[in-house]
Design brief:
The protein has about 290 residues and is of the alpha/beta class. It has 14 helices and 7 strands. Helix 2 packs across helix 7 and helix 11 runs antiparallel to helix 12.
């Protein structure tokens, strides 16, 4: 339950929307973007709709090679998955969009992007609908047999070399090496609001990893000083505010890092009272450092 609440606090969809724009940046002059496109007068919304201006120009990026003139995108956060009902809902959205705009089905594509392999859906499509589900490259699958070109993108399985940013919002980072690559890439694009949005989410979703590695934390301090300062003031969790304050009282950067790690442990255990006491009682704080080997 707590994990779902944490996922709900992280704004995955805006970051995914920004991330798609980053990934398809080479084709931005030929693409028109609509976030949460509303269908009809009722509250039915396509997650993301991408329109090609010139249908003769192919999209260069691997995730967009399937694109035609009208491209429906459905995104699921790392905690969510694509069910059979979800599949038909998005398929129906594409059909409704075709009807409302009097276009041909051959002009539409559907993309599902998620972080969990939809085993039940794939089994259903193959067995019940006689569809072909084929891997075309790392993390990208094509689904044929439904009358509309459909692709499935498994974000966490995408190539790090080709799709670094989309891969990185597919769940937890694999380790400090991947995080360090992201930091170096972010350094090149820090002034771009899209990259700031994506990096902010990645840091929040992997805060323990970023705070555990002192070298990485120092790099983040330089690159994301404003963002991290805002996080400290508001608190990533209700009790984490006490963690930063206590870390500052404890002394230097090392003290802040140690207390940030302790805060994460106690918050995951729902031990807010212990965290509050540790922020005020130095001896108790030392006991906890020893207990958790920090």
């Amino acid at each position: 339950m707590k994990k779902r609440k944490t996922e709900a606090r992280l704004q995955w969809h805006p970051a995914f929307y920004a991330d798609l724009q980053i990934e398809l940046g080479a084709d931005h002059k030929n693409l028109v973007w609509e976030n949460e496109h509303q269908l009809g007068t009722k509250p039915l919304e396509i997650d993301i709709l991408i329109l090609k201006k010139d249908i003769r120009l192919p999209v260069q990026k691997n995730i967009g090679k399937i694109f035609r003139q009208f491209n429906v995108i459905e995104y699921k956060s790392p905690a969510d998955y694509i069910s059979i009902n979800d599949f038909y809902k998005v398929y129906a959205y594409a059909c409704l969009y075709k009807s409302e705009n009097n276009i041909r089905m051959e002009e539409i594509t559907i993309t599902f992007a998620c972080s969990r392999y939809p085993r039940n859906l794939i089994r259903y499509l193959r067995k019940e609908k006689c569809c072909q589900v084929k891997s075309v490259e790392q993390g990208i699958y094509r689904i044929s047999g439904m009358g509309i070109p459909i692709q499935l993108i498994l974000l966490h399985r995408l190539s790090r070399g080709k799709n670094l940013w989309l891969r990185s919002i597919g769940g937890k980072l694999s380790g400090w090496e991947e995080a360090e690559i992201l930091i170096q890439e972010y350094r090149k694009h820090k002034k771009d609001e899209r990259y700031r949005s994506v990096m902010d989410l990645i840091v929040r979703a992997n805060q323990e990893l970023f705070m555990e590695v002192k070298k990485m934390c120092q790099a983040l301090e330089e690159l994301m000083a404003d963002e991290l300062e805002a996080m400290r003031k508001s608190g990533w969790e209700a009790g984490e505010k006490h963690g930063w304050e206590a870390g500052e009282k404890y002394g230097n950067q090392e003290g802040i890092l140690r207390f940030a790690k302790l805060s994460g442990i106690l918050l995951r255990q729902n031990q807010q009272e212990q965290l509050l006491r540790a922020s005020e009682d130095e001896e108790y704080r030392k006991e906890l450092f020893q207990k958790y080997n920090i």
